[in-house]
Amino acid sequence: MRLAIIRPASVVILFLLSASLGTAAAQPAGKVPRIGYLSQGFATDPMRARFLEAFRQGLRELGYVEGQNIAIESRWTEDKDDRLPALAADLVRSKVDVIVVTGGAATRAVQLTTRTIPIVMSTVNDPVGSGLVASLARPGGNVTGTSFMAPDLVGKQLELLKELVPKVSRVALLRNPDNPADTALLREAEAAAQALGVRLQTLEARNPPEIDSAFAAMTRERAGALLILPDAVFLSQRSQIAELAVKRRLPSIRQSSAFPEAGGLMSYGADYLDQMRRAATFVDKILKGAKPADLPVAQPTKFDLVINLRTAKAIGLTIPPSLLQRADQIID
């Protein structure tokens, strides 16, 4: 190796040049990644706010500090889902590095807007059946994230209702017909209902007035219990649904623990907040160079049973000890 003799005057020039080049080289590495966040509902909804905070917590656990080495730009539909395409386009125009999305409808809106920016979905029921990914193992395209595996849970939810009300013969099923994941959910529900010897009464609702109409139909048909399929509209209107179920003394179950927290009777499903924390791990991998197409969709490993005893008392229902013993959380 040849050694160069550098005179004192040259040292200053070389130092300044080196510092200049070093600064230029550090700019790409020092760029703060920008994360787009799109959610249905309102930012002021306590449950939605907990979703975003859980995602932030996941980022902090991975060493990201908002405002220092990462930035988040959030968009909310404020329960106007027709805004999803415009909000998705706004994030794409902002040239964020990754877009984190909650719910299947929002994920679809972003996917239709960009095929290049990585998308991390969360709280999505059936990403394969909805056409969001090619498979759980190899998603393909620019979408990956977490799945609720909801089709596998509907049967268990019906079993819990049957255990709660052994003599029930007719169960109302509330769904949003605009939710593409419902095809698989309905198949699972019908198979479980047949095995349990109960008849399903399928009712549809897209908004609060239609939810009122659906409950009126449940009363006319004398439904003995209620199964609510997962949907962003039903999450936003969880208090309305809980109040109507109590008014009609209907034992009810939903996937999200937000339902019993809002006054509903019972929930069984994956932990929403855990799903949001896990979304941060996908963002971290993508920012470090991984491609969404190669990151398998994560499925839940923990399922929680939550029971609201106050609601049970309000509708004159005694919860079997076997259910109480298995509950992960009891609201009293």
Explain what you see.
The chain is of the alpha/beta class and about 325 residues long. It has 13 helices and twelve strands. The protein has helices spanning about 10-30, 45-60, 85-95, 105-115, 155-165, 180-195, 210-220, 230-235, 240-245, 260, 270-285, 310-315, 320-325; strands at about 35-40, 70-75, 100, 120-125, 145, 170-175, 200-205, 225-230, 250-255, 265-270, 305-310, 330. A seven-stranded mixed β-sheet has the order 7-6-8-9-10-11-12, sandwiched between helices. The chain starts with 7 loop residues before the first helix and ends with a strand. The model is unreliable at about 1-30 (pLDDT under 50).
Give the tags.
single chain; 332 residues; alpha/beta; 7-stranded mixed sheet; 5-stranded parallel sheet; disordered N terminus
Strand content: 15-25%
Count of helical stretches:
13
Overall mean pLDDT stands at 89
Element string (H = helix, E = strand)? HEHEHEHEEHEHEHEHHEHEHEHHE
> Which residue ranges are poorly predicted, with pLDDT under 50 across at least 5 consecutive positions?
1-28
Secondary structure class reads: alpha/beta
Give the topology, please.
Blueprint (H helix, E strand, L loop, with lengths): L7 H23 L3 E6 L6 H16 L9 E6 L7 H10 L4 E5 L1 H10 L5 E6 L18 E5 L6 H11 L5 E6 L6 H15 L2 E6 L3 H13 L4 E4 L3 H5 L1 H10 L4 E3 L3 H4 L4 E5 L1 H16 L15 E6 H6 L6 H6 L2 E3 L1
Parallel strand pairs: 1-2, 1-3, 3-4, 4-5, 6-7, 6-8, 8-9, 9-10, 11-12
Antiparallel strand pairs: 10-11
Helix pairs in contact: 2-11, 3-4, 5-6, 7-9
